[in-house]
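@channel anyone free to eyeball this complex?
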Amino acid sequence: MATTDVPGANGKLSEQLDAVVIRFCGDSGDGMQLAGTQFTNVSAVFGNDVSTLPDFPAEIRAPAGTLGGVSGFQICFSSSDIFTPGDEVDTLVAMNPAALKTNVADLKRGGTLIVNEDAFEKSNLSKAGYESNPLDDEESLAAYQVQKVPMTSLTRDAVAELGLSPREAERCKNFFAMGLVYWLYQRDATPTEEWVKTKFAKKPELVDANLKALHAGYNYGITTEAITVHYRVDPADLPPGNYRKVTGNEALAFGFVTAAKLAGKQLFYGGYPITPASDILHELSKLKNFDVVTFQAEDEIAAITSVVGASYAGDLAITASSGPGIALKGEGMGLAAIMELPLVVVDVQRGGPSTGLPTKTEQSDLYMCMFGRNGDCPMPLVAPASPADCFEMAQEALRIAVEFMTPVLLLSDGYIANGAEPWKIPDISSLKPIKVSHENKQGDEPFMPYLRDEKKARPWVVPGTPGCEHRVGGLEKSDVTGNVNYSPENHQFMTTLRAEKIAGIADFIPEQTVEGPESGDLLVISWGGTYGAVRTAVKQSVQEGLSVAHAHIRYLNPFPKNLGDLIKQYKKVLIPELNTGQLRMIIRGTYLADAVGLNKVQGKPFLISEVKEKIREMIDEK
Amino acid sequence: MSVDVPLPVLSPKDFASDQEIRWCPRCGDYSILAQMKKVLPTLGIPKEKFVFVSGIGCSSRFPYYMDTYGMHSIHGRAPAVATGVKLANPELQVWVITGDGDSLSIGGNHFMHVLRRNVDLKVILFNNQIYGLTKGQYSPTSPMGTKTKSTPFGSVDRPLNPLSVAIGARATFAARSVDVDIKHLCSVLERAAKHKGSAFVEVYQDCNVFNSGAFEFASKKGKKEENVIYLEHGKPLIFGKERDKGIRLNSHDQPEVVELGKGVTEDDLLFHDEKSEDMNLAFLLASMRHPEMPEPMGVFRCVEHPTYNEAVYDQVASATERNGEGDLEELFNTGDTWTV
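replying in thread with the prediction:
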């Protein structure tokens, strides 16, 4: 099925747009994540820049039709660079009343609202808390171009000849919705058709049904008189190269596997399933032919301690979890820190405390990761800025771990983990190598497990190496010999030494850069997944003539060496965070800078407009 | 690579580290350490291939006193650490040293899972029925009514039977010995070392400071003969100084003590079968507790199953055979890609 790109074809107008935001929403069984992912794929393959925001309920299957069970997937696709899935929605596809109710507020005035009219019947309306059918109330939806499409019955009719059960037939309605939206935005459905054929290869009747539903939706767009315009968004002008779409979790898995390959080492992953980190385990489990060993442990503590064991035995070892799981891993991280063993712990942050908001994003584990271990236990912290950046930061984390013989924390978040964007496939030969050296016995001198190199790193010996037998452990050790030593002076010495080793990493990481003027009225500092919204807000503010710059920090401990001086170049500092001000406290404490916060803890990413508004407010109040 | 090079002949001294041993005088741990140093040189494994991993507690200082690779880890987690070591490097012989508090309280979870997975590790549980390092609180194996600092009126906890737990987790090797029963302990450690798969050994260990004599019934000459049955595969369960008593199943299939002679012959007794896939016999033996019954010593169960570490590497190998050695370029370019 090729798109018709002739203005006036079938009497329809084709309108050119720069960027579009679409949100698919429906019941968690309606296949909205699939619809969104497929739309993202076809847009990416077409050459648009894309950014996505999946949003799912915490329950696997909340009662069908209820507000708690609404699942959504938002995608922004554009003919220029974009950094967020967008603030306002241009086209909202709502598969039932609950989806409409929970999402319509984000649809912009004049936007297109496509609803599955069949789902707006009595029981669904009452489950969503509607007293009357909003589709009959012209006033409530007057601000939008409403397309009432009986998707369930049209889908049923489209697949009627295949002899599916009514239930199976109706399940294809997400493909009908996709087809309609594909027509609306002139998408080539070929990648989705190929995907369906592969995915359901063993169930040919489902291949037929889904393709028929997809085509029916597309044809409905062509023939219906209700929709008179469709839209075109040209490919984006991205740097030349080969691209694919990645989510943050995929990119982390790719980054770790790449680092292991570069280092010529086996990768060991010990993990325990937890939202939203599980996909890292899933991705790595598929890659056993890359010399990857994955271990699904019995709990989070076994996950981290197995990783400690694997690191001791010489593997590049990693674990990933989310807030509550990281809390459980604290003691294991402390063990790795005092034994000075290299490993990486990924925290895909979500709303807390405790179980909190398991499927929603937040940045509130910074304090826990910076400070949350017993004793004086600094650990390096890095934080990717976007899904694609996870590829590089995964390698950076492992590089720091092995070069400095230390556990390293990598802070991702739900938004980065599940969000997707185009990733320029790297030239493997251009990647920075990761050097690993394992100590071997030289001469007759006894082996000293805590003898240090110029980076204050101790040797990494693989058990099985003759003559280097040694013991490590959680009890305080003497430097050089590694013998147990409780003396007060020794503990002070070793505590300082470990802290200096971590602080010294600052000499081996890039200096902090800014986007925008090198001095001025306002510096906006961000970290992690807020990168896109903050970057766009600052860019737009600069275009509006404001004196504002943006520093996005990817190395959180230690900070880049020049950060303190850099902050002093601006009159004011704003730190937007999806927490109540954790980086702000650390920046204030470290640099005595009078930083102001913009803080949101709603389980949702920043809107560009929220950040822009705050920038304007701070500059205006001088 | 490993052929042709003759292995150095090792002695117990080769396994002694230069660290001062800081257990209390007359602690049962000394004997276990000594037997371990005796057994390891007999295995034909180079010294650098041994790794000792422990948790927290008196017994868990053990790795410091062995001149092998070792890790004194954190409370209860040694089985998980050791799983990581073994998976990263399956050529190592990995021993887990743990106590009753370490592996049955805080580490109960890992204890159970390492055994059910059949990771090729040797788990030695020093059971002294007390918390020694924290100075004398009751442990998960202390009998009900045990009076300690935290249970001045006697503990009301029902104790756990380590062997029952291990057999319940389908340990492929489960055994018991006593710290001072030197020959027996040596033979059990040796069999554990040679077992392919998780080997679990409970050692009755005397804490002469906080729980002195708890196992006198099983260790003291003159007493133990009447209180202990030494298990031998294929042999009837006979005990007693005069070897005149045995164990028979009664009409409810429960074990009972009978005297030999007077109409009861060896053939009427229960015969030990450590290789039985059925776990009933091992459970039944584990349920025999002093003072109601003589307690079995030796190997309760020894069966061979594929190990977890082998299974993990079999998957790595078959995935590599199926898909070829991982190629990053190919990986990155799978699925929908496009060129700008």
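from a first look: Chain A has three domains: 6-232, 244-427, 520-620.
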